[in-house]
Amino acid sequence: VFQAQQMHRWCEDSVVSCAADGNVQLHSWLRPHSSIVLGFHTGRAHKLSLSPVDPCTFLSCGEDGKVLFFDVRDTQNGKLAVKFLNDRKRRVQINAVAHDPTDSSGNRFAVAGGDKKVRIYDLRTASFANSGNGTGGGGGGEGAAPHESHTRDDHNNPDPLQVLWDEEAIELGSHITSLAYSSQGELLVNYSEDNVFLLDPATGKSKQQYKGHCNRETVKGVAFFGPNDDFVVSGSDCGHVFIWSKGTGDLLQMLRGDEDICNCITPHPHLCTTLATSGLEHDCKVWQSTASESTVPDEEYMRHQLADNASSQSAVARAYTWMRAMTVDMLIDQPSLRQFVDGMATSEEAELWASSDDGSSFLSTSSSSATEDGFSDDDGVDQDSGAS
């Protein structure tokens, strides 16, 4: 199971989930053996997004490059909303989908995944709205591969309302593992092998970067945190939970979320200083700002960990540099190979990135407040309970 969401506004005991088998299921706390498969993706289904307006509807996304629409009141579910096509009209996998909480209609949502851009769509122009039926994995049985070319029914696929990206992340050739909306409509984007970026859909520009974590091995989550979304949180390959100041980008706290890799980060929907995390271990951790003393690691430990993470990220930049140098000569006689290096960093750019500082500049020079540094680990939430 990659994600589970309580549909508490529809029915208190209802939970929807998506998983590696591609299934999107409806469960009940009170009837644990009554799970229903609502629909499915071809390949892994990564994320769900509940409608902020309609308590009975939600979206799912997966590696088949599709966003599916579900209504738990409907007998025909898994309707195809969007096929995620890149600039060359080829389908790519989707790692994240999220509704825009500032849209009063509940129709606007963002999608990101196997390429470097965030695309924003409107459900009123969805494929099933255009075609009149258009079931996806739940009924169409299309079985499309993640990277196949567009097919005969792609003419119904809606164009995005807006396309967002960060120029620096684009040049390094990374893809997006997760995204999240703030209550003000800002977008957090977590790039693999790169930093977390704060994008402003109103201007289409990047407002801030958050550095220090390592996002290479698995799909890392990202979220806003705090009473006014004042903080940014993400997991890391090093097992830590990173907490930054949204406004300044300063790293304020590192919590040991997992002995191996920390993937999932979920703030409590009502208690603004409560955070749930999980990773490769067989448990979840719930964090609250209850410690009587600061739990921020000492500066030497943080510098060492940040240097390790920076070194790991730099190895990727060096690989891009090597691949670029290896193919430059071939491009003279084989222009078609230009697609192979499309989006990669130049040798100079990648070398500059690979030789950047050891991570020490990521540290905040300002003192942290009790909310930022007073976290304690409150175990006792079992992963099987669905808290993840």
Q: Features of this protein?
A:
single chain; 388 residues; alpha+beta; 33% strand; disordered C terminus
Q: What do the pLDDT scores average to? A: 76
Topology as a string of helices (H) and strands (E): EEEEEEEEEEEHEHEEEEEEEEEEEHHHE
How far apart are the first and last residues' alpha carbons, in Å?
9 Å
Please give the count of helices: 5
Structural class: alpha+beta
Characterize the structure shown:
This protein has 388 residues and is an alpha+beta fold. 15% of the residues lie in helices and 33% in strands. It has five helices and 24 strands. The chain has helices at residues 127-131, 167-172, 299-333, 347-354, 370-373, and strands at 3-6, 14-18, 23-28, 36-40, 45-50, 57-62, 66-71, 79-83, 94-99, 108-113, 118-122, 162-164, 176-181, 187-191, 196-200, 205-210, 222-225, 231-234, 240-245, 251-256, 262-267, 274-279, 284-288, 376-381. A four-stranded antiparallel β-sheet has the order 1-2-3-4, with no helix packed on it. Strand 3 (23-28) and strand 4 form a beta hairpin. Helix 3 runs antiparallel to helix 4. The chain starts with a strand and ends in a 7-residue tail after the last strand. Residues 131-153 and 324-388 have low confidence and may be disordered.
Please sum up the structure shown.
This protein has 388 residues and is of the alpha+beta class.
